[in-house]
Write a structure and sequence with these properties.
Length: 272
Amino acid sequence: MLSFLEDNDQATAAAARNFVARVLGLATHEISLDSKVELSHEQIGKLLPLLQRLQSGEPLAYVEGSVGFYKHDFAIDSRALIPRADSEVVVELCLENLTDKSPLRLLDVGSGSGCLIVSLLSALPRADGVAIDIEVGALELTSLNAKTIGVDQRLQLLRSDCLAGLDAADRFDLIVSNPPYITHGEELGPSVAEYEPHSALFVTNGDAMQFYRRIMIEAKVHLLPKAVLVFEIGANRQDDLALAANECGYQVLEQRKDMCSIVRAISLQLIA
Ligand SMILES: C[S@@+](CC[C@H](N)C(=O)[O-])C[C@H]1O[C@@H](n2cnc3c(N)ncnc32)[C@H](O)[C@@H]1O
């Protein structure tokens, strides 16, 4: 059965081997092509459909149903974008702009799995917040992860088109967002386009800045004095965002690179 792994490319085979080991509770080195491990029918029945999903190109995180992000494991499935390691710098930049000395109120626009807002609330025990998403399925995942990680008592879930559904009086110390920013025609890995939700990826009007502009404009009435807006951006989009920010009345505070040295997170503040 494990010869199945040999047919894949190396990276998929390595991922599949790790996966098999985890499912069977074995060390990775025990799962090799010359392994003498005898699998029961039950184990094979459990593994085979999952391995076939991997072989067909479905991302490992969806097949496994969870992915590590920042300090926690997040449940994940096709209802939300898979949290990317790149996005951890977004969490770091947010945390550097906050101190947990006083109660804080945070907003995540487009929460998906909840990886950003849940990581923030977990790191800031006195903070509470709101997670907005337009997709019910994404909010269900945010809710599940908030419960598992123990921050659900401090997180309100809101199905809304950007900030439109927020209570007019609601104010925040920090708004974070990793909104859709892919324009149609932009190159994406095949498994991304095939398996991840298009509503999490694509803008709808051909403008990569579509959601950033909307969020910046709609956020204005929801920002406490000195509040910070932190965005994740696509590769090489920092100049576009700086321009859009300026047009919307914000100044760039800081840019932060991800582990591939690509500017990935940008903090902004309203120009006084
Ligand atoms: C790029 S994903 C980010 C998910 C998560 N925050 C992360 O960083 O992995 C964008 C999210 O925005 C949500 N979204 C798309 N359009 C939206 C809208 N008009 N209003 C609110 N959320 C929206 C999508 O459903 C998706 O969950």
